[in-house]
Write a structure and sequence with these properties.
2 copies of one chain form a homodimer. By secondary structure, chain A is α+β, with helices and mostly antiparallel strands. Chain A folds into 2 domains: about 5-80, Glutaredoxin; about 100-220, Glutathione S-transferase Yfyf (Class Pi), Chain A, domain 2, CATH 1.20.1050. Chain A contains 9 helices and 4 strands. Chain A has helices at about 15-25, 45-50, 70-80, 100-135, 140-165, 175, 180-185, 200-210, 210-220; strands spanning about 5-10, 30-35, 60, 65. A 4-stranded mixed beta sheet of chain A has the order 2-1-3-4, covered by helices on one side. In chain A, helix 4 packs antiparallel against helix 5. The radius of gyration of chain A is 18 Å and the shape is globular. The interface between A and B is medium-sized, with 31 and 31 residues.
């Protein structure tokens, strides 16, 4: 048996959490090698050899070293895909064509990156991350603007989730999982109730939070700073 | 024969150019349906039906409608892949495993999105896009900061391109193509000579610019505003 893969990073990091969630979803064994990013250890030469941009996570599977959390996550999902578990839908065998199913995963994965993340992340940065890392208090103007932007995005999600159970169709995919890290921290801000206005989105989120893999990753993401 | 696919957008848009370049690279027939984004036509109800976020491009292939340029581009590359032309490397037949080759394309595709784009795009926005769309002049502090950030990114690229001809290995991939739209406009700013400090990167870029598909897309991207 090959040794477990290694993830270099800290479980509180949203980008590390993305990778850990995929490992948990596919049931892969892994070793989490701590890199204390609050102390700047991601810039140590040893880590820069793994990730030339000095960011976490980095990932090792035998001789293969990868960086960029979304790329790592896709590698994990491809490597461990089975007929029953194909979270990228690159090879499923339903009635619609493979290209179309994979395209819907890509569309909603990109929507998370390009539309959802820019809105929700600023609220999390202002209310949770910057206060811890920089000792600042939230800039209310940025928070309010981001919440307005987030509401417009959630309107589109509500309409989408009226048509299908998950974002890329009726089964869960990488597109849904990608929403976990920042939404998890958003729910610890004073603005969690924003989701109450979007019942389909809220039910979708509660469904994600009920997954055993999500619960396991959450356990190492404290929000009571 | 099925009718050509449709791209809804404007060829000057970097996100539209990404899609057009992939169509040209695979030699697919397509129809470009103009959406005048300078006049805000991407928010017309007809276009919002295609892209619920009111952005360009949108894409249609028969009954399938897609949005988000990176997702559209991947759909095109998957649909038209052959043994000789597999720009996502999801099914190539070299000695290294398929998962590893696809992972390297994903890593450098993400590097473009997360490291390269945030640095180079601000220079393009300040020097070219905002002056045209908002009538402003470049904020030199933002430009200078972005150039410093870009240089640090280009250092990593130089080291990478000393080891392989292209970013994801010795053959071209989607990861390289993704750099085209913003680098093309960057070369029309007063800072093009920044690339002179990175000879491998400069040769890689000149190689991209020499491709017939790139030349064809460039022809509709004027830089003499």
């Amino acid at each position: 048996m090959s040794p477990p893969v290694k993830v270099f990073g800290h479980p509180m990091s949203t980008n590390v959490a993305r990778v850990l969630l995929c490992l948990e979803e596919v049931g892969a064994e892994y070793e989490l090698v701590p890199v204390d990013f609050l102390a700047g250890k991601q810039n140590d030469p040893q880590h820069v050899q793994r990730n030339p941009f000095g960011k976490i996570p980095a990932f090792q599977d035998g001789d293969l070293v990868l960086f960029e959390s979304r790329a790592i996550a896709k590698y994990i999902l491809r490597k461990h895909k089975t007929d029953d578990l194909d979270l990228l839908k690159e090879s499923s065998s339903s009635s619609s064509s493979i290209e179309e199913e994979a395209a819907m995963v890509d569309v909603w994965t990109e929507v998370e990156a390009q539309q959802y993340y820019p809105a929700i992340s600023l609220v999390v940065f202002e209310c949770i991350i910057f206060p811890v890392m920089r000792g600042t208090t939230a800039n209310q103007e940025i928070v309010d603007g981001s919440l307005e932007r987030l509401k417009r995005v959630l309107e589109v999600y509500e309409a989408r989730l009226e048509k299908s159970r998950y974002l890329a169709g009726d089964s869960i995919s990488f597109a849904d999982l990608n929403h976990f890290p920042f939404t998890f921290y958003f729910m610890a801000t004073p603005y969690a109730s924003v989701f109450d206005g979007y019942p389909k989105v809220k039910a979708w989120w509660e469904g994600l939070m009920a997954r055993p893999a999500v619960k396991k990753v959450c356990a190492n993401m404290p929000t009571d700073f």
